[in-house]
Amino acid sequence: MSDIVISVKNLTKQFGNFVAVDNISFDVQRGEIFGFLGANGAGKTTAMRMLCGLSYPTSGSGTVAGYDVMRNGEQIKRHIGYMSQRFSLYNDLTVLENMRLFASIYGLSKKHTEERATELLNQLNFMSERNTLVGSLPLGWKQKLSFVIATIHHPDVIFLDEPTGGVDPITRRQFWELIYKAAENGTTIFVTTHYMDEAEYCSRVSIMVDGKICALDTPTRLKEQYSANSMDEVFRTLARGAKRGG
Amino acid sequence: MKGNFGSFVKKESLHILRDKRTMLVVMLIPVVLMLLFGFAISTEVNNINVAVVASNRTDGVKDAVEQISQNEYFTFCGYISPDQIDSKLRSSEVGAVVVFAADYDRRVEQASKGIPSKPLIQLIVDASNVNTAGSATAYLQNILLKSDAQQAMFETRMLFNPQLKSAYNFVPGIMGLIFILVCAMMTSVSIVREKEVGTMEVLLVSPVRPVKIIFAKMIPYFTISCIVLVMILLLARYLLGVPMSGGIWGIFSLSLLYLVLSLSLGLLISTIAQTQIAALLMSAMVLMMPILMLSGLLFPIENLPSFFQVLSNIIPARWYIDAMRKMMIQGDAITAVWHNCAILLGMTIALLGISLKKFNDKLE
To answer: How far apart, in whole angstroms, are the C-alpha atoms of residue A112 and residue A153?
Structure first.
């Protein structure tokens, strides 16, 4: 019995004559790590914004965590976590202050906030850094902190927009361990990335070209289908046909 | 979700408190400006060297010279001959020359009897600095006319600001400027910073309503501005001796209205600007320049070309500064400047409405 967390049918977003997202459909199961790939300008960000309740689709339908993207944008926001490629915590607040701020944004009670903060700090082995200003942490630590803070309210889905940009390979590895752990606990991960080795870590991968999804399957089966050795080759084969430049 | 407004206000306050340098600048600028305008940059006439030309040093002339040399604003530097006038002024040895007619005493006497007579005294003033020249002339006239005989001819009196102390005039102007600086510039930069850094994106994906984020941002800046306001008023009253006879509550409440107006301007800028630099430039160019030039802060509005006079009507600072002058210096009550208040209130409502609407549109 599968439990579908994100379901999208014929989702389209048009800006004037430009069709940024062209009739895409897919489902994502609970606890899945769903890789959302595509060259720059393929329409990933636009699609993701619609799923986060930040913009309305021109046509089509979809639900995220059980809420309609057309009507319940505000409800969706309560049930998702979001982390962008740009570091988005407050550098001039301490680790703990950032945690408390985001806990309060998602309406956690005081008691619950302190519990979650302790839990997350332990998960990262960050207890000793809890009163350090976030700005003075190394980038890799910041990204990990960003991720756990995005999970502070136990969201159903976490949207990660190129979360590992500019991070060294070792930290990227640790970062993906955090992702796996969250997925094991039943959180669905929706991740965009430009690193094809990371695409290999995903349960399923979709590849967008010119606003359309032109491949969607597990990394293993995609490699078979395109008789490629790596996801990198699969991506190149598909992206070669793109008309919109990135 | 109710509790999170408080945590946003706390967050904004922490941003401000941890940015010690900015904090210091915000607190110091008003003080420095007040001291600068109050003491250093002044159009007051001080220590002007005055030479006198008089072919007959009669009692009447000696009397007048005595008056000049006793005045604290002028230094009497002796009698000179008529052909020295040009060279003395050119070399800036003296700033003004007073020429007494040869038959000064006789003419004074005639004048006192009501017989029309030719000019008694000629003032030759170095007008390369227009402001100084203007004030020097006014002062000298004031002094010389005090000698009894001329008193009957005409009388000039400087009202409200008898010593023409320029600090008086600058205080309302500085207030008009400072609050735009603190409120508009700092709020716009702080909102745009969140856009630039990317934290705004995360806040927008969260369930917090954008209006809440904005109001939470305004509160700490409003608080700081209130502190600055109190500081300025104290300095003005006790250091510069501005009378503020119009009632402190009127002055205070109109200033609070002006603060809200400045905050709305900041919000409007933040919806247009994409980078902190752009926000800073916009605040400087779009807000500061007109305030300096067109609000009556530096140049009287009546002296502007008519096009700019009309333009100055849309500048909030003009109405604020004008009302403040009336309340702080002339001693008008707030009821006497009600139309300034009404205009400012109207502008505030309009600006707040437009910027909130623009802010919400932007999100879509």
So the answer is: 10
Note the pLDDT tens digit of each residue in A154-194: 999 999 988 888 888 888 899 999 999 999 999 999 999 88
Q: Which CATH class is domain B48-151?
A: alpha beta
- What residue ranges do the domains of chain B occupy? 4-41+166-363, 48-151
Quick check: B364 and A74 CB within 8 A? no
Tell me the CA end-to-end span of chain B in Å, nearest whole number: 22
Residues 6+ apart with CB under 8 A from B201: A82, A84, A86, A88
Q: What phi and psi, each to the nearest 5 degrees, are found at residue B338? A: -60, -35
Residue A246 lies in a domain: no
Among candidates A82, A92, A93 on the partner chain, residue whose Cβ is nearest the Cβ of B202 = A82
Domain membership of residue A114 (yes or no) is yes
Encoding tokens for residue B17? 């408190």
Q: Token pair of B308, please?
A: 């700019």
Residues of A in contact with B363 (CB under 8 A): 54
User: What is the mean predicted confidence (pLDDT) over B333-351?
Assistant: 91
Residues pairing with A215 in the sheet: A207
Within 8 A of A139 by CB-CB distance, chain B residues are: none
Q: Does residue A63 lie in a domain region?
A: yes
- Tell me, what CATH number does A112's domain have? 3.40.50.300
pLDDT band, residue B144 (cuts 50/70/90): confident
DSSP string covering B62-115:
HHHHHHHHHSTTEEEEEE--GGGHHHHHHTTS-SEEEEE-TTHHHHHHHHHTT-
Q: Which two tokens stand for residue B122?
A: 């000629």
ipTM here: 0.84
> Do residue B198 and residue A93 have CB atoms under 8 angstroms apart?
no
Opening angle at CA B128, ends B122 and B130, nearest 5: 80
For the ranges A238-242, B1-5, B256-260, B332-336, the one whose mean pLDDT is highest: B256-260
What pTM did the predictor assign? 0.76
> What residues of chain B lie within 8 A of the CB of A97, using their CB?
11, 14
A245 within a domain of the structure (yes/no): no
